[in-house]
Amino acid sequence: MITFMNNSDSEEEPCNERTSLMSAESPPVPSYQDGLQASEAGGAQAHRKRRTGSSRSPNNIADGDMSSLGVPVRETTSENEEEELTLKYGAKHVIMLFVPVTLCMIVVVATIKSVRFYTEKNGQLIYTPFSEDTPSVGQRLLNSVLNTIIMISVIVVMTVFLVLLYKYRCYKFIHGWLILSSLMLLFLFTYIYLGEVLKTYNVAMDYPTLFLVIWNFGAVGMICIHWKGPLQLQQAYLIMISALMALVFIKYLPEWSAWVILGAISIYDLMAVLCPKGPLRMLVETAQERNEPIFPALIYSSAMMWTVGMAKPDTAARGSTQQTWDAAEDGRENHRSPLHADPQRSETRSSGPTRPITSFEELEEEERGVKLGLGDFIFYSVLVGKAAATASGDWNTTLACFVAILIGLCLTLLLLAVFKKALPALPISITFGLIFYFSTDNLVRPFMDTLASHQLYI
Amino acid sequence: RALAVPGRAFFWLVSLLLSSLIWFIAVKASDPRDELLQKGLLIFGVMFSVLLQEAFRFLYYKLLRKAIEGLVALSEDGCSPISIQQMAYVAGVGFGLMSGAFSMINLLADSLGPGTVGIHGDSQLYFLTSAFMTMVLIFLHTFWGILFFHGCEHRRWWEIAAVVVMHLAVSGSTFCNPLYVGSLVPSYVLMAAAATWAYLLSGGSAQNLRRFLLCK
C-alpha cells in the first residue's frame, strides 16, 4: 500500500511521493520469521507468514514420523527446529538483502563517480526552496533545517493521504497513481540517465535506437513490476529504479539539507512505524484487518510477489493472501528447486486458492522471502552516494558508510527476529551511516592520509 | 558465516575510528610545526591503533563466543553449525580485507589518474610495494585471527601475546619505509611463520600437506 505514492506530474513530484512511500513502507521490512510468531504485528506479509508458520506446526506434528516419542516431544522438537530454522533462515535472509542493497549502492556510487551530471548543481527541487548559497554558517544551517521541515511535512501529508485512500478503498486511484509514477520513473528518468551516461562516454546514439531501447526497457519493466515476470528480472528492475531515484535525490538535494533530511527521515520512520497513531502503523493494521496484501509494486521481495489481482476473497481458515503468498513462495521454491515441474509453477501463478493444502506441506522446509521497502534502498543509496560525491577522503568514507549501513541492516533484521513485529529499516542504518560518514571524513581521513604518505601500515 | 565478514569489518572500522580520534586530538593539541613531535605522535598513533585493533579482535572473539553458545543451545543435537575455527578464519579474513581495503583503495583510485610515481624523488616502487605490503597484511590478519582465537579458546596467553607482538613488529617495520628491505622482508618472514603456525594449529601437518600436494 504504502507503495503507491507515486504521482507523476512533475519530475520532482514522484520523488517525494515515492520517498514518503518508501520510508512509509519500511514497516514491511518484516517477516522472515517463519514459524515463530503469534503476534499480529508486521505487514500483511508478516501476517501471512505467521499464518503459514502456525500452520506448519500442525503439519509437523501431523507429518508424524519425525520422532518415535510422544506428541509433546514432537512439539518441542518442532519448536526448536523452527527456532533454529528461523535463525538460519534469518541469516540467509540477511544475506538475501545484502546483495540487492549492495548492488543498488554499487550502481549509485559507480554512476556518481563517473557521470558528472549527478554531482553538478543544477537547481533544486521545489520541496527544498531555500538555497544554501548563503555566506554565513548560521543562515545555511537555518535554510537546511527549513528545507527539511518542508520535505518531511510533504512526506507526512502524502503518507496520510495514502492511508486515507486506502481506508476508503479507492483502489483504482491508488493503482493509477502507482502505474503512472512507475511509468515516469521507468521512461523519463531512464532516458535522462541514459543520455548522461552516453554523454560521459561520448558514445553516439541515434534517436530510433534510443527509442527502441527505452521503450523495451520501460515496457518490460512495467510488466515485470506490476504484473508477472521472472523474479530476478523484477528484482533487477526494482534495484534499478531505486538507484535512479537515489541519483535524482543526490543531484537535487543541497548538501547540508541532504544530511539533515536523512536524519529527519529516520526519526520520522521510527515514529511512523512504532507510534500507535502513526500513519504507517494504521496502514498496516488496516491491511491486516482486511486480510489484503499490500500493493507489491514498490516493495523489494526476495520471493515472488504477485499483484493485487491475485488476491481473492478469503476461504476458511487462512486468508487468500496467505494462499497467494504460499503459492508465491511455492512458486519461488519451484523456481529454485528443479524437482518441481514447470506446470506446477504456472499453476501457482494463476490460481492461488486452488492449492492451499499442498502448498502447506511444501512449505515445510522452505525459505521465506524477505521484504524491504524500496524507500530504504533509496535512502541507503543516497547516503552512500552523497558520501562518494562530497567526501574528500573519497573511497575510505564511502567504504565506511557502506559497511555501517550493512551492519545497521543486520542489526535491524536481528531486532526483527527478536521483536517479531514491523520495524523501520532506516533508523539504525542511517544513524550508523551518518556517524561513520562524519567521523571518517573528519578524523580518519587525515590519519590515513598521513599514514599513506609515509607508507606506514597499521 | 558470511555475516561475520561485515561484522568484523565493522569492528575494525570502529577501532580505526577510535585510534584516529586519539591521534587527531593529540595532533590538534600539539604544535604543528615541530616535525619530530609530529613524527613521534604518528608513531604513537600507529602503535596505539595496533593495540586497539587487537583489543577489538578480542571483543569480537567474545561476541562470537556468545553467538556460538546461543546457537548451540538452540540446536537440538548440541553441536553448533559452525565451529570456532571457521569463525576465526572468517573473522581474520574480514579484518584483513577491511584493513587492506582501507590501505589500498585510495591508492588504486589515484593510480587511475594522471601522474608519475616518484617524480619528486620518492621511491618509484611506491605502488608495487604498497600492493605487496597490503597483501602481506591481509594474509597476516587472517593467520592472526586463527592464532588469536585459538589462544583465547585454550587460554594460552602467550599465543595472544605473540600475535600482538607480531602485529607491532610488522607495523614497526613499516617505519623503515622507503627502505623496503627493512619492512617487506621481515613481514614476509613473519607471514610464513604465522602461516605455518596457524596451519599446525588448525590440524594440519606435513603429512597432510604432502598428501594434498600429491593429490592422494
TrEMBL record, chain A:
Enzyme type, top EC level: hydrolase
Bilayer topology term: Multi-pass membrane protein
Subcellular location: Endoplasmic reticulum membrane; Golgi apparatus membrane
Any GO BP: calcium ion homeostasis
GO molecular function terms listed in the Swiss-Prot or TrEMBL record: aspartic endopeptidase activity, intramembrane cleaving
UniProtKB keywords: Endoplasmic reticulum, Golgi apparatus, Hydrolase, Membrane, Notch signaling pathway, Protease, Transmembrane, Transmembrane helix
EC number: 3.4.23.-
Span list, region Disordered: 1-79, 316-359
One Gene Ontology term, aspect cellular component: Golgi membrane
Main location: endoplasmic reticulum
Segments passing through the bilayer: 94-112, 145-166, 173-195, 207-227, 234-250, 256-275, 399-419, 425-444
InterPro entries referenced in this protein's UniProt entry, alphabetically: Pept_A22A_PS2, Peptidase_A22A, Preselin/SPP, Presenilin_C
Record keyword Protease present: yes
Role noted for this protein: Probable catalytic subunit of the gamma-secretase complex, an endoprotease complex that catalyzes the intramembrane cleavage of integral membrane proteins such as Notch receptors and APP (amyloid-beta precursor protein). Requires the other members of the gamma-secretase complex to have a protease activity. May play a role in intracellular signaling and gene expression or in linking chromatin to the nuclear membrane. May function in the cytoplasmic partitioning of proteins. Probable subunit of the gamma-secretase complex, an endoprotease complex that catalyzes the intramembrane cleavage of integral membrane proteins such as Notch receptors.
UniProt domain comment: The PAL motif is required for normal active site conformation.
Quaternary structure and interacting proteins, as annotated: Homodimer.
Similarity comment: family membership: Belongs to the peptidase A22A family.
Name recorded for this polypeptide: Presenilin
Organism field: Thinocorus orbignyianus
From TrEMBL, chain B:
Gene Ontology cellular-component annotations: gamma-secretase complex
Entry keyword annotation includes S-adenosyl-L-methionine: no
Record membrane topology: Multi-pass membrane protein
Compartments where found: Membrane
One GO process term, biological-process aspect: Notch signaling pathway
InterPro entries linked to this entry: Aph-1
Role description: Potential subunit of the gamma-secretase complex, an endoprotease complex that catalyzes the intramembrane cleavage of integral proteins such as Notch receptors.
Membership in a protein family: Belongs to the APH-1 family.
Name of the protein this chain belongs to: Gamma-secretase subunit APH-1
Species of the source: Thinocorus orbignyianus
Lineage: Eukaryota, Metazoa, Chordata, Craniata, Vertebrata
